[in-house]
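agent> fetching stored inputs for the alpha-D-glucopyranose docking request
agent> found them:
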Amino acid sequence: MFPPRWHSSSRKTDEGELVSRRLAALICVALTGGVLVAACGGGGGSSSGGSSGGGGKSVSGAKVIDPNSMNKPPKGTIHYCQGKDTTGDAHAKVKLFNQKYASQGYKAVLTEFPASADAQRAQFIQRQQAKSNDCDVFSSDVIWTAEFASQKWLYDMTPYINKFKGKFIAAPLETIHYAGKYWGVPFASDAAFIFYRTDKVSTPPTTWQQVYQQAAQKGGIVYQGAPYEGLTCDFLELAFAAGGSVLSPDGKKSTFNSPQNVKALTLMTDGIKHGSAPKAVTTYMEPETDQAWTTGKYAFMRNWTYAYAADNKAPSKVAGKYKVAPLPAFEGGGKAGILGGHNAVISVYTKNPGLALKFADFSASDQWQKEQLLKFSLASVIPGVYSEADVKKSVPYASELLQALSQAKARPVSPVYPQISEAIYTNVNNALAGRESPQAAIKAADSAISKALQTF
Ligand code: GLC
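agent> prediction call returned; pasting tokens
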């Protein structure tokens, strides 16, 4: 039996346990009559757990933000860095901010980093190591909080968050909580869907096994199989659903070498061997997945929420021809997903922390949160947005979005998470490309994870 992950736990957490907290919080956004409503104003923020945990770690001596500094900061320009703006949401956000504040002498400029999450991280690290103020505000993936905070690269945003805690859904809020402090402003939550072609598939499959079987007959599935962070997510979605895990509950040991993880990987490698997925997925990140999907050839795609809006635009050949479903169960296991998303973090090297905060605050404003959901299908971090009349009307996938977010689990929280993830995606990619058996790949990742854990 697959252990229910819906209970709340006070135990010190592994990635599965973390989820129950996040989940409990997300359930605050309840589903009523097919639409999302705010059942409670999150906040949760109960510091005790979550990514937060930080395993008793402490980060001292960080610069602390003054929440009032955003009210009348010195005039000037701040630079907002984020990954490649493939959908246009970042340009739209910067434009709106500038329209609103230009007359007061405030301006934001966008700096785009590559599409790959790992490359974005590397770009930010380079700048922080050089103590550069190239990025006043950075769109930080939910998995980087522990590392960046430990390095003392981020403003401690606790006083700001404490002031506005009540407005956030607790799951995304927990992703900026580390070592008892808050290190950013959540602005986009994320989870994946199975996209399916309504002209090829009548109802979405209920298990991953069915997805792969049907894919073989109806045109195939595309997903992110390149060796980078995205593949860690794609793999862990199946692995967690199969009942697998990455770390022991105390976060100290690898639990990666398990029959459940081997099963999950075997389904994926067989999928490529037997024609459910093209071998090219081993080179796909998100943009390549969209390119393949919008050719119209494939029956299924695994991708994040943004693709709902992005792939519906000309010249897409699948516009109007697909729906989304929350990720299915793994036979003999249960349902799972991976919690993604981004937080606006402020670099300690900024010369205008007040203006940087103004921009971060704008990213989480009702105005922008609504716009990013309606136009770019990015999941709001404010529950109230989901219950607004025009949102209810124009987000046909609202109930699927709620379920996808609700079943999403955190990736392991650790300052060495990037090394853990690299161990996973490198070996999983080796298996997908046929260079290693699933067993050997899981074993190799397990020993690399153990090594990474010894480094801190
Ligand atoms: C999405 C998610 C992010 C994840 C990344 C992997 O951007 O929001 O959390 O790490 O995809 O490619």
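agent> quick read of the result: The pocket of alpha-D-glucopyranose is lined by residues 117, 141-143, 190, 229-230, 233, 304, 340-341 (CB under 6 Å).
agent> awaiting further instructions
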